[in-house]
Amino acid sequence: MKKTLSMILTAAMAFTLAGCSGSTPKPSEGEGSAKSALDTIKERGYLVIGTEGNWSPWTYHDEKTNELTGFDVEVGKEIAAALGVEARFEEAAWESLLAGVDSGRFDIICNGVGYKEERAKSYEFSEPYVFTRKVLIVGKDNDTIKTFEDLKGKTTANSTGSTYAEEAEALGATVQYIDTFGETITLLTQGRIDATINSEVSYLDYMAQHPEAPIKIVDQSEGEAVCYPVKKGETELRDAVNDALANLRSSGKLAELSKKYFFGDITKK
């Protein structure tokens, strides 16, 4: 009886194990893998673009219509069109933009983002689409600050988390954090800061609108690459953006937009 019971239990266990080993089918190739950002964008039909909306001429609101416009806005629309989708812009403070890519809030940032090796460890960067110079801006009557190195012990102003703010701090300056270039210049002309490191094209744009502004450039860098960042690992999306930029460059459209917003062609190094 014991022998018979033992044989029954053994047979039942063998049957159960055999059933378990065959009950879970092997996943098909690619099954269970997450969709790429590019696939998701194409399926939903729109590209979510993060931008500040207050940094002329890159991204700002037209004074008459209040519509979002600017160089990066127009290029962003061209990129979306190349992907076969609509461009949808979401505005946020600078310090929230890259974090928005990390969280999935934005697919891409179109906001004059400078390429930095440290940033490239955390994001996929497109090929450079323009090259800009950073400049050191002071009050018109300031004769004590002549180079970037003279910022040690001085006070500057920039957006939180910007490369300009980081560079000013690295040079020994104390940085006041603000949201817009206009605020920076107001602080400068009121004598509340000593200088600011900023984009040459933003300076030129501001001076075109405020030719009497009592400010000047005293130092400048060589051309620096500006790229579009997407989430780390999303190489398909990065490559698609690069393809769109290559077509815009070869067609002359990128240079055309540069001349429209930047007083010249800054698409070449």
Concise synopsis of the structure shown:
By secondary structure, the chain is an alpha/beta fold. It has helices at 2-23, 37-44, 71-83, 94-103, 117-120, 163-170, 181-189, 200-209, 235-251, 253-262; strands at 46-51, 60-61, 68-69, 86-91, 108-109, 113-114, 123-125, 130-132, 134-139, 155-158, 174-177, 195-199, 215-220, 224-227, 229-231. The protein folds into two domains: 37-131 and 226-262, 3-Layer(aba) Sandwich (D-Maltodextrin-Binding Protein, domain 2); 134-221, 3-Layer(aba) Sandwich (D-Maltodextrin-Binding Protein, domain 2).
What can you tell me about this protein's structure?
There is one protein chain. The chain has 269 residues and is α/β, with parallel strands linked by helices. Helices cover 41% and strands 22% of the residues. It has 10 helices and 15 strands. The strands form 6 sheets. The chain has a 3-stranded parallel sheet with strand order 4-1-5. The model is unreliable at 1-32 (pLDDT under 50).
